[in-house]
Design goal:
This protein has 686 residues and is mostly beta strands. Helices cover 5% and strands 57% of the residues. The protein is built from 5 helices and 39 strands. The strands form 7 sheets. The protein has a 22-stranded antiparallel beta barrel. The protein has a 5-stranded mixed β-sheet with strand order 4-10-11-8-9. The radius of gyration is 25 Å and the shape is globular.
Length: 686
């Protein structure tokens, strides 16, 4: 860590309020909130109106679907380093399956894998290939919307467990500045900045520029956590037409290997698989897109959203294998890239038919994804593998078109949501021998939900929804046999859900409960039992219960609480697994986060926060021969905003306070949890 540089930065931030002594100075008004409140209106930990679930501006407490919003304040208070960490307090979202691994945000929703078909950004799908995944920077987000269950009827290709929709920081219509300096364990050094406001006084144009630079290590030798990130945005609003341009360019360097050697089935050792001298996983990504809305009149609005994006990865990895009574090493070199283009055209129409009001959304969207991979494996040395030509390993091209129609109907205290969609997907697959095959998939998806408002903020609902999701990449009917490689079939599902929400007017409180039952066909899961990350497909049934609450009170308290009980059963899969539970899915998860901001007295400005995350027992393989113990993680946070220094904030966060490092196994391979980690930051908003 460059300590002189950090010391200068800290001194510079702390000195921002200082002025010369020979003239008076009046502090300008301080803008403390980073959120733009455009596509997501939020207050503390509680979401208000959001268009992330129905693509229409709807109060979250009135949406007949289980929806969790991770707000800007929650992100700031918990200081997550990755998207997985940001989801740690969300009901039925499990980011704990693969232990410590900052290479990928591999999360499960309602017990079902969501890391390929469950990524969305600003309402458009964010394609992930087997290894070329988009990395999500929490500092660049003003919220995360977790939509539980099938959402294909509006969002198209998506998984049965739900989707995670990342909400990018957008331009604010008032001046906003932030400088943040962060340090932490493993020589962590990061500087970030966020600047927004109108281009000039009275201008219809507003901008935002968000960026960071980080150098850091980890507990693993040769495993870095470096990143540069820059995200400019520009918006224009003349009262009739609204347009926003969103862009990003970033480079990330982490370790290529996160695993530990498994000396026996169901056992992880302390022997790190990585070679410190051959352990780079470099990822470059960019995205460029826009959102445009135009009001034809008071009732009709035209919309269009577009994004082009690319991810290129270069992965060096290594491991051990038994050779006689000793262990020998292998080294791998993997390269992958994916180019995507997504376009969504929609029309919103408000109309009344007698006492019944309709808010209708109709649209057509198109996607294109081009994917290539190259791979080589060596057994002589790291240098030999690194110098070898990396041969072609496979490619895919996917073209998708979808047509959708959604109607939000309200009559007195009754609401009905009806959605229907049709998709057509063409996939061309090229295998390692350059043999080309094609397939065409068509599918229908829909949702029907009915709710009743009982008054006093209580709303009860029931719904049925389906999903359709073609998959990019290859799967293996037998992950240990290369000859069983094939293009993945589409994943389809049906869900039944009933629930209740409580969001009384005039309070900053949202409480929800839901019971669900999901049938999934041809689901794609990650299989690491051979030492390589390969995909396979199977049929599953997931059912469970979710309870969740988010609240902020005027006395300084903020609370987030969640509980989920679920069971995921294999309906069709490998021999000996049918009827068993899916590995890595805990039957019970519970989380609780609370923060208290002292309002007055000598300690005014001090914030104290604590959180608990409980991950229950689960099976470590689909044969249910292994059992993962339950785990408890405790997190702490302390912040201080000096009254005499408006806009200045100091904060310390500790994750896994008691350094719990148990093993956890998924699909027969076992991983290790990350130990205690801390960060400390100093920021100024002005």
């Amino acid at each position: 860590m460059n300590r002189p540089l950090i010391a200068c930065l800290l001194a510079g931030v702390a000195a921002l309020p200082a002025v010369a002594q020979d003239r008076p100075f009046v502090l300008s008004e301080i803008t403390l909130e980073a959120e733009s409140d455009t596509t997501l209106v939020q207050d503390g930990y509680v979401p208000g109106i959001s268009r992330t679930a129905t693509k229409l501006d709807t109060p979250v407490g009135k949406i007949p679907q289980a929806v969790t919003i991770v707000t800007q304040d929650q992100i700031e208070d918990q200081a997550p380093r990755t998207l997985n960490e940001a989801l740690g307090y969300t009901a039925a979202a499990n980011p704990n399956n693969y232990g410590f691994d900052t290479r990928f945000d591999a999360f499960f929703l309602r017990g079902l894998p969501a890391y390929y078909n469950g990524y969305f950004r600003d309402g458009l799908r964010q394609y992930n290939a087997p290894t070329a995944w988009f990395k999500s920077e929490p500092y660049g987000l003003e919220g995360i919307a977790v939509l539980k269950g099938p959402n294909s009827s509006l969002y198209g290709v998506s998984g049965p467990g739900g989707i995670v929709n990342l909400i990018t920081k957008r331009p604010k219509d008032e001046r906003y500045r932030e400088i943040d300096v962060t340090t932490g364990g493993n020589d962590r050094a990061q500087i970030a900045g966020d600047f927004s406001g109108p281009l000039s006084e009275g201008s219809e144009f507003s901008y935002r520029l968000t960026g960071l630079a980080r150098k850091a290590n980890s507990d693993l030798p040769g495993y870095a956590d470096d990143k540069t990130y820059l995200a400019p945005a520009l918006s224009w609003d003349n009262g009739v037409t609204r347009a926003t341009l969103l862009a990003e360019v970033s480079n990330a360097l982490t370790g290529g290997t996160a695993a530990f050697y498994n000396p026996a089935y169901g056992e992880v050792s302390g022997l790190y698989e990585g070679d410190p001298d051959y352990n780079d996983f470099e990822q470059d990504q960019w995205r460029l897109g826009y959102e445009v809305e135009h009001d034809l009149n008071d009732s009709v609005t035209l919309r269009q959203s577009f994004r082009a994006a690319q991810v290129d990865i270069d992965l060096e990895y290594s491991g051990h294998y038994p050779l006689g009574t000793d262990l020998a090493r292998y080294w791998g070199h993997y390269q992958e890239n994916i180019d995507t283009v997504v376009l969504d055209n929609g029309l919103r129409w408000n109309v009344n038919t007698g006492p019944v009001s309709h808010e209708i959304l109709a649209g057509i969207d198109m996607t294109r994804a081009d994917y290539e991979s190259y791979s080589v494996l060596g057994y002589l040395s790291a240098a030999d593998t690194g110098a070898a030509v990396v041969p072609f390993n496979g490619a895919q091209e996917q073209r998708q078109t979808g047509i959708y129609l959604h109607d939000q109907i309200q009559w007195s205290d009754w609401r009905a949501y009806a959605s229907a969609r049709w998709d057509r997907v063409e996939t061309t697959t090229t295998d390692a021998s350059r043999s080309v095959s094609s397939q065409e998939d068509t599918g229908r998806s829909g949702r029907l939900a009915l709710s009743y408002d009982w008054g006093n903020g209580v709303m009860a609902y029931g719904s049925v929804s389906t999903s359709f999701a073609p998959n990019i990449g290859f799967v293996y009917d037998d992950p240990g046999d290369d000859s069983t490689q094939r293009a993945a079939r589409p994943t389809q599902s049906t869900q039944r859900e009933i629930g209740v929400k409580y969001a009384p007017e005039g309070t900053n409180l949202l409480v929800s409960a839901a019971v669900f039952d999901i049938d999934q066909r041809d689901g794609t899961v990650l299989d690491a039992s051979t030492g390589e990350n390969r995909q396979r497909q199977l049929d599953l049934n997931s059912r469970g219960l979710e309870l969740e609450a988010q609240a902020n009170w005027d006395n300084g308290w903020g609370v987030i609480a969640s509980y989920a009980h679920q069971r995921v059963r294999i309906e069709k899969g490998a021999a000996g697994t049918v009827g068993n539970e899916l590995s890595g899915v805990p039957n019970d998860t519970l989380s609780l986060w609370g923060k208290y901001d002292i309002q007055s007295g000598p300690a005014a400005g001090l914030g104290l926060a604590a959180g608990l995350r409980y991950v229950g027992e689960s099976y470590g393989d689909d044969a249910n021969a292994l059992t993962n113990d339950d785990r408890v993680f405790v997190d702490l946070g302390v912040s201080y905003q000096p009254v005499q220094l408006p806009g200045v904030r100091m904060q310390v966060n500790v994750k896994n306070l008691f350094d719990q490092q148990k093993q956890t196994c998924t699909a027969g391979y076992c991983y290790r949890d990350e130990g205690r980690v801390w960060t400390a930051s100093l920021s100024r908003r002005f």
